[in-house]
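Summary for the funding panel

The consortium committed to producing paired sequence-structure records for every protein in the target list. Below we show the first two records in order, beginning with the earlier of the two.
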Amino acid sequence: MSQLKLKPNGLQYSVPQYGGLGNLQRIIARNKENYKKYFQLGNRVVPSQHPLVQLLQHFSVDITSGSESLFNLVELKARQLASLVNLTSLYNKGKDHLDTVFPESNHHTLFVVPFDNELGLTIDDLSREKVFEQPILSTIFTSSNVQYWDISKLLDSEIRKGEEEFYTAIQVDIHRLVLAYYYYLTDRTLANINVGLTPQHFIFLVLLDYYPVHNESVMLNYTAGDKVFIQDPPFAFTDYSVELTKFVTWKKKQLMSDRLRSFTEYMEYHPTLYKNSGPFINCGKSQMFIQLGWVYTLATLYWLKPYLSYMDYMGYQDPIVEAQLRTFYKLNPAFILNQIKDPYWRNKFHNVYLDLKNR
């Protein structure tokens, strides 16, 4: 077994419910609404050098393209075009895209394009009415503890460096990206809106939508012991750090008092995660290819550490996971490490690999 990937076991567990969760979710939802209203004003753009801008430009989307033609083009060319802009894909081991999503110059970022149409989407699934039902960008894994609410810091000229290096791997739904841009163009053209039509502006909107997705994924790291950190925004904002800290403290107490029966049950304590983001993200057949599979293996090793630490604390084991890990750790890590092009990501994989192995 050269790769690992977490999957739900299909069982439903009855876990305790936190009494203040509804109020916390309402505060975050209100902040999210104000966040989008504030940053959607004006015509903000990302640089033309942004890899997602370059990817969209390769598809040559315009209002005459037609949704079905674009869908077929993505099916035919997605992997090839992704490799041209150095996204991590079947034909390219990718590169570290600093300063493309997060404002810190030491927040290492991968854009990952799955091998196939991982959700089996058809053109009907990506109609104008359905295309925005799921995010275009989803988190495979993140080591960040920051909840981002100010995307203007990504666009200004100030150079920022975080106190520690973070790593985030983001899965790109190219079908949804290209079709969403096509519908966006046609809708604005029909409404006689002649600004904000460029890929540079549309990718800004995609990143705007991604920050809340990232913030949800960060919740898992708080459960693992990371300190809650919420970025100060420039708009009307209700601080929820106290409520969130109380929720995290409650989760930790529950996890240290009740025996967990599976990783699926562990995830039941994180009810706010997006369906296709985080540990259970759908990667299709990507695991079959070592050029791609290492990203999802890294995520699995990283997300498993806190779960198994809680199990160790309670004096229990997950026999299925432990058996998979014993098989996995028989493999020489060089087999995977040699597939990782970027030295920072190679070092991160090795550290996470050893951290779980030596726990």
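The next record, for a separate protein in the list, is shown here:
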Amino acid sequence: MDWITQNQAQEAAEQGELPALECSWKHHKQGRNSDWIELKEAIENDKFCLSWELCACCRFVGKQDGFKDNGCRKCPLGDFFCWDNIIWAKVRNSWAKLTNHFSNANFKAFQEAEAELCTYIEGVIEKVKKEAEIKDKYDKEKCKKCEPKLRHGDYGYYAESGNYWCVWKQEETLEIFGKNSGSGRVAEEENKNSDMVKDGNHVDDLERNSEDLEGFGVGAGSQRDIFTAKWDGGHKDTMPFAIGVNGKSFWFDGKQVIEIHQKLGQLIATAERSQKC
């Protein structure tokens, strides 16, 4: 049998959590599947044991934090796995008996304990793979959201820095401008592999605002809120402006309304930056 070596355990640990788990599973599967003579010779020749040197998960923990903070707290198999887990306790106890007296009964008990441990590790591996699939799906959706097909008038922000950008067409080239992002770069090139999040389009906003709107609803059913707004005659900078919510009006002068409109957009942008992409 090609027994797992210390170098293989170290290499797996350096590759990440899942490779470390899979290497650990292979190691214990060898203990589960070997015959009586194979295992006895492997133990006698120091090719198989339960020490941390042959455990890729132990080495993974060491790679992460040098066994600081009680080390095993971050074990891929579970926090303090080798301290508290009942399944591991069975393996450890049966191993101690086997190495003390290599009898058929002790051999059988050890392999039964290893079999139970292998089943446990298989479950952990499946869980890690499932979590990786979910994360991969989320990342793909995130990338799809963060990499919009840009067009003239688009604007948004960078998820990582929160800096804003807008796109403008110069002759036949889309260029990107924005706070702390320079100007004149080709927008489509900037957009590749970036964290650009598109908020809207200035042209679409202007077209939408050119159409009259007396009110709108938000929500559904009995929870639906109805918003209305109107000027009460006169110059828009000085005359009262009513914003109504479910029949209750709030009055502001024209300058206040413009400020509310601007600040509300700023509040939304701040909330978006806090969540990032």
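Regarding this second record: Residues 6-144 form one domain. The CA atoms of residues 108 and 240 lie 89 Å apart.
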